[in-house]
Fold this protein.
Amino acid sequence: MTPATRKRKRLGTHEVSSSQKDKKIMPIACAKNLDTIEDKSNKAESQTMASTGDLSAYEKQIQHNIAEKMQVLHQLGITEAKQQFQHFISEKKKTTTLGLKPEKRVRSPPLPPRKSLRLAGRDPDGHEHPEGFDMKTKFYASENVTQMSRPPAGPMQMTEVGKNVKSEQDEEEFVSSLEDFCKSKKRFKRTTANLQNFVSFFESMRLTQEHVIKVVPNRIFSLDIHPSETRTLICAGDKWGYLALWDVDSASGNDGVHLYQPYSRPVSDVIFDPFDSGKLYSASYDGVVRCADLSTGVFNEVFVTDEDDDILCKAVDFISAQTLAVALGDGTMAVVDTRIPGCTAEHTYYVHKKGLRTVSVHPVDRQYIVTSAAESYAKIWDLRNMKKPTSSIAELPHGKSVSSAYFSPLTGHKVLTTSTDDTIRVFDSTHPEQSTTLHSIRHNNHTGRWLTRFQAIWHPTREDLFVVGSMVHPRRV
Protein backbone atom coordinates (compact mmCIF):
# COMPACT_ATOMS: atom_id res chain seq x y z
CA MET A 1 0.00 0.00 0.00
CA THR A 2 1.50 3.33 -1.08
CA PRO A 3 1.64 6.37 1.30
CA ALA A 4 -0.98 8.23 -0.82
CA THR A 5 -3.37 5.28 -0.56
CA ARG A 6 -2.92 5.12 3.22
CA LYS A 7 -3.63 8.89 3.46
CA ARG A 8 -6.87 8.60 1.44
CA LYS A 9 -7.96 5.67 3.58
CA ARG A 10 -7.43 7.64 6.79
CA LEU A 11 -9.38 10.60 5.41
CA GLY A 12 -12.26 8.38 4.38
CA THR A 13 -12.45 6.77 7.81
CA HIS A 14 -12.47 10.21 9.41
CA GLU A 15 -15.33 11.38 7.20
CA VAL A 16 -17.43 8.38 8.09
CA SER A 17 -17.10 9.14 11.79
CA SER A 18 -17.94 12.81 11.16
CA SER A 19 -21.01 11.76 9.23
CA GLN A 20 -22.18 9.73 12.20
CA LYS A 21 -21.78 12.77 14.42
CA ASP A 22 -23.71 14.93 11.94
CA LYS A 23 -26.58 12.47 12.07
CA LYS A 24 -26.84 13.08 15.81
CA ILE A 25 -26.80 16.87 15.66
CA MET A 26 -28.73 17.52 12.45
CA PRO A 27 -32.19 17.67 14.14
CA ILE A 28 -31.13 20.97 15.73
CA ALA A 29 -29.35 22.36 12.67
CA CYS A 30 -29.89 26.08 12.05
CA ALA A 31 -32.09 27.07 9.14
CA LYS A 32 -29.60 29.78 8.14
CA ASN A 33 -27.23 27.02 6.89
CA LEU A 34 -29.96 25.43 4.78
CA ASP A 35 -29.07 27.37 1.63
CA THR A 36 -25.45 26.19 1.81
CA ILE A 37 -26.49 22.58 2.27
CA GLU A 38 -28.95 22.78 -0.62
CA ASP A 39 -26.29 24.25 -2.89
CA LYS A 40 -23.94 21.43 -2.00
CA SER A 41 -26.73 18.92 -2.57
CA ASN A 42 -27.50 20.30 -6.02
CA LYS A 43 -23.83 20.25 -6.85
CA ALA A 44 -23.54 16.66 -5.64
CA GLU A 45 -26.50 15.60 -7.78
CA SER A 46 -24.98 17.20 -10.86
CA GLN A 47 -21.75 15.38 -10.18
CA THR A 48 -23.61 12.10 -9.71
CA MET A 49 -25.17 12.45 -13.14
CA ALA A 50 -21.68 12.82 -14.58
CA SER A 51 -19.22 10.00 -14.91
CA THR A 52 -18.31 8.58 -11.54
CA GLY A 53 -15.14 7.00 -12.74
CA ASP A 54 -13.07 10.07 -11.84
CA LEU A 55 -14.42 10.40 -8.23
CA SER A 56 -12.29 9.23 -5.35
CA ALA A 57 -13.65 7.40 -2.32
CA TYR A 58 -13.32 10.63 -0.33
CA GLU A 59 -15.46 12.63 -2.80
CA LYS A 60 -18.07 9.88 -2.95
CA GLN A 61 -18.30 9.89 0.84
CA ILE A 62 -18.91 13.70 0.80
CA GLN A 63 -21.80 13.29 -1.65
CA HIS A 64 -23.24 10.55 0.50
CA ASN A 65 -23.07 12.76 3.64
CA ILE A 66 -24.78 15.70 1.90
CA ALA A 67 -27.59 13.49 0.63
CA GLU A 68 -28.19 12.10 4.11
CA LYS A 69 -28.32 15.62 5.60
CA MET A 70 -30.86 16.79 3.01
CA GLN A 71 -33.00 13.75 3.70
CA VAL A 72 -33.05 14.55 7.44
CA LEU A 73 -33.97 18.23 6.71
CA HIS A 74 -36.88 17.17 4.51
CA GLN A 75 -38.11 14.76 7.17
CA LEU A 76 -38.04 17.51 9.81
CA GLY A 77 -39.96 19.87 7.49
CA ILE A 78 -37.31 22.59 7.67
CA THR A 79 -37.37 23.32 3.92
CA GLU A 80 -41.15 23.94 4.02
CA ALA A 81 -40.76 26.12 7.12
CA LYS A 82 -38.12 28.18 5.31
CA GLN A 83 -40.44 28.81 2.37
CA GLN A 84 -43.31 29.83 4.67
CA PHE A 85 -41.06 32.20 6.62
CA GLN A 86 -39.82 33.89 3.44
CA HIS A 87 -43.42 34.26 2.28
CA PHE A 88 -44.36 35.86 5.66
CA ILE A 89 -41.53 38.38 5.42
CA SER A 90 -42.47 39.40 1.89
CA GLU A 91 -46.08 40.12 2.98
CA LYS A 92 -45.22 42.17 6.11
CA LYS A 93 -47.28 45.37 6.12
CA LYS A 94 -45.81 48.76 6.79
CA THR A 95 -47.15 50.49 9.93
CA THR A 96 -48.60 53.96 9.66
CA THR A 97 -48.43 56.72 12.25
CA LEU A 98 -51.70 58.39 13.27
CA GLY A 99 -52.02 61.88 14.65
CA LEU A 100 -49.31 64.48 14.07
CA LYS A 101 -47.33 63.89 10.89
CA PRO A 102 -43.55 64.36 11.09
CA GLU A 103 -42.27 67.39 9.20
CA LYS A 104 -39.83 66.78 6.37
CA ARG A 105 -36.41 67.99 7.37
CA VAL A 106 -34.13 69.56 4.80
CA ARG A 107 -30.60 68.28 5.28
CA SER A 108 -28.26 71.21 5.81
CA PRO A 109 -24.79 71.26 4.24
CA PRO A 110 -22.00 69.85 6.43
CA LEU A 111 -20.42 72.31 8.82
CA PRO A 112 -16.69 72.96 8.77
CA PRO A 113 -14.67 70.98 11.32
CA ARG A 114 -14.62 72.52 14.79
CA LYS A 115 -11.37 74.01 16.00
CA SER A 116 -10.42 75.11 19.49
CA LEU A 117 -10.51 78.90 19.82
CA ARG A 118 -8.62 78.63 23.08
CA LEU A 119 -5.70 76.83 21.47
CA ALA A 120 -5.77 79.36 18.64
CA GLY A 121 -5.42 82.18 21.18
CA ARG A 122 -8.89 83.63 20.55
CA ASP A 123 -11.89 84.49 22.72
CA PRO A 124 -15.34 82.77 22.36
CA ASP A 125 -16.32 85.37 19.70
CA GLY A 126 -13.29 84.55 17.57
CA HIS A 127 -11.30 87.71 18.31
CA GLU A 128 -7.64 87.57 19.19
CA HIS A 129 -6.71 88.11 22.85
CA PRO A 130 -4.87 91.31 23.70
CA GLU A 131 -1.20 91.18 24.53
CA GLY A 132 -0.45 89.94 28.03
CA PHE A 133 -3.76 88.07 28.29
CA ASP A 134 -3.65 85.33 30.96
CA MET A 135 -6.23 82.52 30.52
CA LYS A 136 -5.99 81.59 34.22
CA THR A 137 -7.08 85.01 35.47
CA LYS A 138 -9.21 86.38 32.58
CA PHE A 139 -12.48 85.12 31.18
CA TYR A 140 -14.53 86.55 28.35
CA ALA A 141 -18.10 85.40 27.89
CA SER A 142 -20.00 85.71 24.65
CA GLU A 143 -22.84 88.22 24.80
CA ASN A 144 -24.81 86.50 22.03
CA VAL A 145 -26.33 83.82 24.27
CA THR A 146 -29.85 82.75 23.30
CA GLN A 147 -32.29 81.71 26.03
CA MET A 148 -35.79 80.22 25.97
CA SER A 149 -38.02 83.20 26.70
CA ARG A 150 -41.61 83.06 27.87
CA PRO A 151 -44.46 83.65 25.46
CA PRO A 152 -46.08 87.11 25.75
CA ALA A 153 -48.00 87.71 28.98
CA GLY A 154 -51.77 87.94 29.04
CA PRO A 155 -54.66 85.91 27.63
CA MET A 156 -54.07 83.73 24.56
CA GLN A 157 -56.73 82.64 22.10
CA MET A 158 -56.58 78.89 21.41
CA THR A 159 -56.94 79.62 17.71
CA GLU A 160 -53.87 81.92 17.84
CA VAL A 161 -51.49 79.45 19.50
CA GLY A 162 -52.73 76.43 17.54
CA LYS A 163 -50.12 74.38 15.69
CA ASN A 164 -50.43 71.99 12.70
CA VAL A 165 -53.91 73.41 12.05
CA LYS A 166 -55.57 71.99 8.94
CA SER A 167 -57.81 75.04 8.54
CA GLU A 168 -59.05 77.91 10.67
CA GLN A 169 -62.61 76.73 10.18
CA ASP A 170 -61.77 73.27 11.49
CA GLU A 171 -60.14 74.75 14.62
CA GLU A 172 -63.07 77.09 15.24
CA GLU A 173 -65.53 74.21 14.95
CA PHE A 174 -63.53 72.20 17.49
CA VAL A 175 -63.47 75.08 20.01
CA SER A 176 -67.20 75.57 19.45
CA SER A 177 -67.85 71.87 20.13
CA LEU A 178 -65.97 72.18 23.42
CA GLU A 179 -68.34 74.93 24.50
CA ASP A 180 -71.34 72.58 24.20
CA PHE A 181 -69.34 69.71 25.69
CA CYS A 182 -68.56 71.70 28.86
CA LYS A 183 -72.27 72.06 29.59
CA SER A 184 -72.63 68.29 30.05
CA LYS A 185 -72.99 67.23 33.70
CA LYS A 186 -72.20 63.52 33.31
CA ARG A 187 -69.04 62.59 35.20
CA PHE A 188 -67.13 59.51 36.32
CA LYS A 189 -69.10 57.45 38.83
CA ARG A 190 -67.65 55.60 41.77
CA THR A 191 -67.42 51.94 40.89
CA THR A 192 -68.45 49.18 43.28
CA ALA A 193 -67.39 46.28 41.07
CA ASN A 194 -65.51 43.38 42.63
CA LEU A 195 -61.75 43.99 42.51
CA GLN A 196 -60.97 40.61 40.97
CA ASN A 197 -63.51 41.13 38.16
CA PHE A 198 -62.27 44.69 37.69
CA VAL A 199 -58.66 43.56 37.30
CA SER A 200 -59.69 40.71 34.98
CA PHE A 201 -61.34 43.24 32.71
CA PHE A 202 -58.13 45.27 32.51
CA GLU A 203 -56.06 42.15 31.84
CA SER A 204 -58.29 41.30 28.88
CA MET A 205 -57.54 44.64 27.19
CA ARG A 206 -55.12 44.65 24.26
CA LEU A 207 -53.25 47.47 22.53
CA THR A 208 -52.91 47.41 18.74
CA GLN A 209 -51.10 49.68 16.30
CA GLU A 210 -54.41 51.22 15.17
CA HIS A 211 -54.91 52.65 18.67
CA VAL A 212 -51.47 54.28 18.97
CA ILE A 213 -51.31 57.96 18.02
CA LYS A 214 -48.74 60.75 18.23
CA VAL A 215 -50.28 63.70 20.06
CA VAL A 216 -47.30 65.99 20.81
CA PRO A 217 -44.00 66.54 18.95
CA ASN A 218 -41.74 65.70 21.92
CA ARG A 219 -41.60 63.58 25.06
CA ILE A 220 -44.78 63.63 27.18
CA PHE A 221 -44.34 65.20 30.62
CA SER A 222 -47.95 65.26 31.86
CA LEU A 223 -51.33 63.68 31.09
CA ASP A 224 -54.95 63.90 32.23
CA ILE A 225 -58.32 62.54 31.06
CA HIS A 226 -61.54 64.55 31.11
CA PRO A 227 -64.07 63.06 33.59
CA SER A 228 -66.97 63.10 31.12
CA GLU A 229 -68.75 59.83 30.31
CA THR A 230 -70.13 61.08 26.99
CA ARG A 231 -66.86 62.02 25.27
CA THR A 232 -63.26 60.85 25.62
CA LEU A 233 -60.98 63.90 25.73
CA ILE A 234 -57.32 63.47 26.69
CA CYS A 235 -54.85 66.27 27.40
CA ALA A 236 -51.06 65.86 27.20
CA GLY A 237 -48.17 68.28 27.73
CA ASP A 238 -44.69 67.77 26.28
CA LYS A 239 -41.08 68.80 26.80
CA TRP A 240 -41.11 72.06 24.85
CA GLY A 241 -44.33 73.76 25.85
CA TYR A 242 -46.79 72.00 23.55
CA LEU A 243 -50.20 71.05 24.89
CA ALA A 244 -52.46 68.67 22.94
CA LEU A 245 -56.17 67.88 23.19
CA TRP A 246 -57.02 64.50 21.69
CA ASP A 247 -60.70 63.99 20.90
CA VAL A 248 -60.52 60.19 20.65
CA ASP A 249 -63.78 59.57 18.79
CA SER A 250 -63.38 62.49 16.39
CA ALA A 251 -61.66 62.80 13.01
CA SER A 252 -61.21 66.58 13.17
CA GLY A 253 -57.75 68.13 13.26
CA ASN A 254 -55.01 65.52 12.84
CA ASP A 255 -56.98 62.31 13.51
CA GLY A 256 -58.67 64.06 16.44
CA VAL A 257 -55.52 65.78 17.76
CA HIS A 258 -55.47 69.56 18.27
CA LEU A 259 -52.10 71.05 19.22
CA TYR A 260 -51.29 74.32 21.02
CA GLN A 261 -48.13 75.98 22.36
CA PRO A 262 -48.91 78.27 25.31
CA TYR A 263 -45.44 77.69 26.87
CA SER A 264 -41.81 77.47 25.78
CA ARG A 265 -40.53 74.93 28.33
CA PRO A 266 -41.82 71.57 29.71
CA VAL A 267 -45.49 71.34 30.68
CA SER A 268 -44.99 69.64 34.04
CA ASP A 269 -48.64 69.14 35.03
CA VAL A 270 -52.13 69.24 33.50
CA ILE A 271 -55.37 68.79 35.44
CA PHE A 272 -59.04 69.29 34.63
CA ASP A 273 -60.81 71.39 37.26
CA PRO A 274 -62.77 68.95 39.51
CA PHE A 275 -65.24 71.74 40.33
CA ASP A 276 -65.68 72.97 36.75
CA SER A 277 -64.60 70.44 34.09
CA GLY A 278 -64.82 73.13 31.43
CA LYS A 279 -61.48 74.45 32.66
CA LEU A 280 -58.05 72.92 32.18
CA TYR A 281 -55.16 74.03 34.41
CA SER A 282 -51.52 73.52 33.42
CA ALA A 283 -48.14 74.33 34.98
CA SER A 284 -44.85 74.82 33.19
CA TYR A 285 -41.14 75.20 33.80
CA ASP A 286 -41.68 78.73 32.45
CA GLY A 287 -42.83 79.57 35.98
CA VAL A 288 -46.41 80.12 34.83
CA VAL A 289 -49.75 78.44 35.61
CA ARG A 290 -52.48 78.91 33.00
CA CYS A 291 -56.17 78.04 32.85
CA ALA A 292 -57.62 77.04 29.48
CA ASP A 293 -61.29 77.98 29.47
CA LEU A 294 -62.69 75.42 27.03
CA SER A 295 -66.02 77.22 26.78
CA THR A 296 -64.41 80.44 25.49
CA GLY A 297 -61.23 79.01 23.91
CA VAL A 298 -58.82 81.22 25.90
CA PHE A 299 -55.63 80.48 27.90
CA ASN A 300 -55.64 82.79 30.94
CA GLU A 301 -52.73 83.36 33.31
CA VAL A 302 -53.43 82.33 36.90
CA PHE A 303 -50.03 82.46 38.60
CA VAL A 304 -46.75 83.95 37.34
CA THR A 305 -43.29 83.97 38.94
CA ASP A 306 -40.56 86.49 38.26
CA GLU A 307 -38.84 85.44 35.04
CA ASP A 308 -35.43 86.54 36.35
CA ASP A 309 -35.76 84.16 39.34
CA ASP A 310 -36.19 81.13 37.02
CA ILE A 311 -38.52 79.30 39.44
CA LEU A 312 -40.20 76.23 37.94
CA CYS A 313 -43.88 75.45 38.46
CA LYS A 314 -43.98 71.67 38.96
CA ALA A 315 -47.53 70.64 39.97
CA VAL A 316 -51.02 71.95 40.76
CA ASP A 317 -53.93 70.76 42.92
CA PHE A 318 -57.18 72.28 44.20
CA ILE A 319 -57.73 73.32 47.81
CA SER A 320 -61.15 74.72 46.90
CA ALA A 321 -63.00 75.82 43.78
CA GLN A 322 -61.09 79.13 43.77
CA THR A 323 -57.84 78.22 45.56
CA LEU A 324 -54.86 76.33 44.17
CA ALA A 325 -51.78 74.75 45.72
CA VAL A 326 -48.78 75.12 43.40
CA ALA A 327 -45.53 73.17 43.90
CA LEU A 328 -42.45 75.19 42.96
CA GLY A 329 -38.94 74.18 42.04
CA ASP A 330 -37.25 76.16 44.82
CA GLY A 331 -38.76 74.07 47.65
CA THR A 332 -41.75 76.33 48.29
CA MET A 333 -45.49 75.84 47.93
CA ALA A 334 -47.69 78.72 46.77
CA VAL A 335 -51.36 79.09 47.70
CA VAL A 336 -53.09 81.00 44.89
CA ASP A 337 -56.56 82.55 45.05
CA THR A 338 -57.80 82.82 41.46
CA ARG A 339 -60.21 85.63 42.42
CA ILE A 340 -57.37 88.00 43.35
CA PRO A 341 -56.03 89.97 40.37
CA GLY A 342 -52.32 90.16 39.71
CA CYS A 343 -51.41 86.47 39.20
CA THR A 344 -49.53 86.34 42.50
CA ALA A 345 -49.61 83.97 45.47
CA GLU A 346 -51.72 84.72 48.52
CA HIS A 347 -49.27 82.76 50.70
CA THR A 348 -45.92 81.08 50.07
CA TYR A 349 -44.60 78.39 52.40
CA TYR A 350 -41.09 76.93 52.56
CA VAL A 351 -41.75 73.18 52.81
CA HIS A 352 -38.65 71.37 51.45
CA LYS A 353 -34.96 72.12 51.16
CA LYS A 354 -34.96 70.91 47.54
CA GLY A 355 -37.33 71.38 44.64
CA LEU A 356 -40.87 70.00 44.91
CA ARG A 357 -42.20 67.43 42.46
CA THR A 358 -45.86 66.92 43.38
CA VAL A 359 -48.54 68.36 45.63
CA SER A 360 -51.78 66.57 46.60
CA VAL A 361 -54.74 67.87 48.61
CA HIS A 362 -56.83 65.59 50.85
CA PRO A 363 -60.18 64.95 49.06
CA VAL A 364 -62.27 65.30 52.26
CA ASP A 365 -60.27 67.27 54.82
CA ARG A 366 -58.78 69.81 52.43
CA GLN A 367 -56.59 71.41 55.05
CA TYR A 368 -54.20 68.45 54.71
CA ILE A 369 -51.62 68.49 51.90
CA VAL A 370 -48.91 65.93 51.04
CA THR A 371 -45.80 67.03 49.13
CA SER A 372 -42.92 65.17 47.53
CA ALA A 373 -39.50 66.54 46.59
CA ALA A 374 -36.00 65.56 45.55
CA GLU A 375 -35.48 64.34 49.12
CA SER A 376 -35.75 60.98 50.86
CA TYR A 377 -39.15 61.66 52.45
CA ALA A 378 -42.60 63.02 51.66
CA LYS A 379 -44.35 65.37 54.09
CA ILE A 380 -47.94 65.92 55.23
CA TRP A 381 -48.92 69.47 56.17
CA ASP A 382 -51.84 71.12 57.91
CA LEU A 383 -52.69 74.47 56.30
CA ARG A 384 -54.15 75.72 59.58
CA ASN A 385 -50.74 75.55 61.24
CA MET A 386 -48.52 76.76 58.40
CA LYS A 387 -48.75 80.45 59.12
CA LYS A 388 -46.08 79.88 61.73
CA PRO A 389 -42.67 78.41 60.86
CA THR A 390 -43.59 75.00 62.25
CA SER A 391 -42.63 71.58 60.96
CA SER A 392 -44.87 69.16 59.06
CA ILE A 393 -47.31 66.99 60.98
CA ALA A 394 -45.88 63.77 59.46
CA GLU A 395 -42.87 62.61 57.44
CA LEU A 396 -43.01 59.54 55.20
CA PRO A 397 -39.47 58.10 54.95
CA HIS A 398 -37.92 56.56 51.80
CA GLY A 399 -34.52 55.27 50.80
CA LYS A 400 -33.97 57.89 48.06
CA SER A 401 -35.76 60.86 46.53
CA VAL A 402 -39.56 60.72 46.18
CA SER A 403 -40.99 61.17 42.67
CA SER A 404 -44.64 61.54 43.70
CA ALA A 405 -47.07 61.35 46.62
CA TYR A 406 -50.88 61.34 46.28
CA PHE A 407 -53.83 60.98 48.64
CA SER A 408 -56.36 58.29 47.69
CA PRO A 409 -59.18 59.90 45.64
CA LEU A 410 -62.27 59.01 47.71
CA THR A 411 -61.47 59.10 51.43
CA GLY A 412 -57.83 60.19 51.58
CA HIS A 413 -57.12 57.39 54.05
CA LYS A 414 -54.10 56.24 52.02
CA VAL A 415 -51.05 57.91 50.47
CA LEU A 416 -49.40 56.41 47.40
CA THR A 417 -45.72 57.25 46.80
CA THR A 418 -43.12 56.43 44.14
CA SER A 419 -39.42 56.60 44.94
CA THR A 420 -36.14 56.18 43.07
CA ASP A 421 -35.17 53.50 45.59
CA ASP A 422 -37.21 51.15 43.33
CA THR A 423 -40.23 50.95 45.61
CA ILE A 424 -43.88 51.96 45.52
CA ARG A 425 -45.30 52.49 48.99
CA VAL A 426 -48.81 52.79 50.40
CA PHE A 427 -49.18 54.61 53.73
CA ASP A 428 -52.14 54.61 56.10
CA SER A 429 -53.20 58.26 56.47
CA THR A 430 -56.49 57.71 58.32
CA HIS A 431 -54.93 59.84 61.04
CA PRO A 432 -52.40 62.00 59.12
CA GLU A 433 -50.31 62.74 62.21
CA GLN A 434 -49.76 59.00 62.75
CA SER A 435 -49.21 57.79 59.17
CA THR A 436 -47.66 54.31 58.91
CA THR A 437 -46.52 52.08 56.05
CA LEU A 438 -49.10 49.56 54.82
CA HIS A 439 -47.32 48.12 51.77
CA SER A 440 -43.90 48.39 50.16
CA ILE A 441 -43.70 47.01 46.61
CA ARG A 442 -40.47 46.46 44.68
CA HIS A 443 -40.67 48.14 41.25
CA ASN A 444 -37.99 49.27 38.79
CA ASN A 445 -38.31 53.07 38.72
CA HIS A 446 -35.01 53.84 36.95
CA THR A 447 -36.26 55.33 33.69
CA GLY A 448 -32.97 57.00 32.73
CA ARG A 449 -32.58 60.47 31.27
CA TRP A 450 -34.68 59.94 28.14
CA LEU A 451 -37.94 58.82 29.79
CA THR A 452 -40.18 60.82 32.09
CA ARG A 453 -39.91 59.46 35.65
CA PHE A 454 -42.64 57.10 36.83
CA GLN A 455 -45.38 58.45 39.12
CA ALA A 456 -47.87 55.86 40.36
CA ILE A 457 -51.42 57.28 40.46
CA TRP A 458 -54.70 56.07 41.92
CA HIS A 459 -57.59 54.89 39.80
CA PRO A 460 -60.01 57.87 39.95
CA THR A 461 -62.92 55.80 41.32
CA ARG A 462 -61.17 53.22 43.54
CA GLU A 463 -58.83 53.14 46.53
CA ASP A 464 -57.59 49.58 46.03
CA LEU A 465 -56.11 50.04 42.55
CA PHE A 466 -53.34 52.21 41.13
CA VAL A 467 -51.54 52.48 37.80
CA VAL A 468 -47.83 52.91 37.04
CA GLY A 469 -45.52 52.52 34.05
CA SER A 470 -43.11 49.61 33.63
CA MET A 471 -39.60 49.12 32.26
CA VAL A 472 -40.35 45.49 31.32
CA HIS A 473 -40.30 44.65 27.60
CA PRO A 474 -42.59 44.92 25.77
CA ARG A 475 -43.66 48.24 27.29
CA ARG A 476 -46.71 48.03 29.54
CA VAL A 477 -48.53 49.56 32.54
Q: What stands out?
A: DSSP finds seven helices and 26 strands in the chain.
